[in-house]
Structures are given as C-alpha cells and as structure tokens.
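Worked Example 4.2. Consider the chain below.
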Amino acid sequence: MENQSSRPHLFGLLAGLFLAAGLCFASITFTRTWTHLHESQVIEVTGSARKDILSDLVIWRASFTVEDESLLNAQEKLKADREKVAAFLRAKGVAEFSLLPVQIREITARGRREEDETVTRRIGYRLTQKLELKSTDLVPASALGTESAALLAQGIALVSEGLEFIYTKSSEAKVEMMAEATKDARARAEQIAGQGGRRIKELRTARMGVVQINPRYSSATSWEGNNDITALEKTIITTVSATFALE
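Applying the procedure from the previous section yields the following structure tokens:
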C-alpha cells in the first residue's frame, strides 16, 4: 500500500522536473533566437539614379563603288573617286578619316554553249571602297549622310551605312551614379525604418545592378543592360541593391 501511494508523488515529481527542464530549454532557445534576430536585423532596399547625357563621339561609315571591264581601269576610277570624296569631306570640315581595305569582286555573266551547257564568264570587276569617320563635332558629322548626295553630280554614289552615337565617359558616370543610387537607397531605408520607429545604423552590403543606357525618354530594360548607339541624347539609369543594419 505504501508503494502504491508513493507512485502519484513520484509521477508528479518527474512531471515537474520535465516541465521545468522544458521551460528552461525553451527560455534558452528563445533568448538565443531573440539575440540572433536582434543582431541580424537588417533592411534591404533598391536605390536608383538617372542622368541625362549627350553623346560626345559620332562614327559615320560609308562606301562607294566603281565598275569596269579592266581591273586596272577600275582601280584608276576608284582612285579618282576617292580624291573627289576626300575633297568633299575637307569642304565639310573633315580633316581625317580612315579608308578600309578595298573589296574586289568579279562581275560574271552566265551563258549557254551549243551543247546546252551553262558557262560563267567574267565580264568585269567591281571595287568597293569603305571609309570610316570618327568625330567629336557631332552636328556637322551627323549631316554628312544627307549632304553626300551632292556627290551624285560627280557620278559618285556615296552610300551611308549609318551613324553611331557614343558616350565615351560611361565608365566614370557609372561610378558616380553608383554613389548616387546608394544615397537614394539609404534615403528609402531611412524612410521605411522611421515608420517603424527604427533608425539606420550602417551599410552592410551594396550590389550594383545592370546599367541601362537608353535614348532619351526611353524606359527599355534588358538583363544584360542596354548600350544605345542610335541616339544623340541618352539617359543612363543605374540601380543598387543595398542592405542596412538597423538600430
């Protein structure tokens, strides 16, 4: 009887010990978790910056072609036309331009023999001269494509292959704009933290996103980043993903 009456007390004692141990473990775990969360409390935001820029270099490429039955005569024609093109460019204020290697192609024609056999024979040569102009004087260079039509009166069809507008200081601008985007990220983080009664402590990490260089007023984006060469006026857009510690 004494053994049976002591069992409830033993079970109660064991239950109390397990309960105390569980509460103690839970308290330790909670304390550690709370401490961990408190030490690692951060806020992650994305800041951005944009800057309107003007291209500072224009590249213009063009070509002209001559044809003749004789390769020697074709070369003489090309030389004469090259001098006329150079004179035209000098008159437009262009002192320097690059001449690319001449492309030579045979002009062929097909015919039939009496045996009904198709044959190909050479009837002449076609020589194409390409030129490239790089200039920081953007407006005159940009007009060359249309003004070159005046050469038609001299028997020269100068074919414009388009303009490329380049901003050569994009690397410097990216560094400057990364700082601006980080400032914007901090301002956003402070605004968000202030709503919760917190303050920003320090910058933990900052990761720059892809840079978008678009024509002015364009909002096009790509994963690799855009680098427009079609527009004289452009806009650079940068983003920074930043993590700040909270007090």
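The beta strands are 42-54, 57-68, 98-99, 103-112, 118-135, 159-166, 200-208, 212-215, 233-246. The chain has a mean pLDDT of 84. Compare this with Example 4.1 before moving on.
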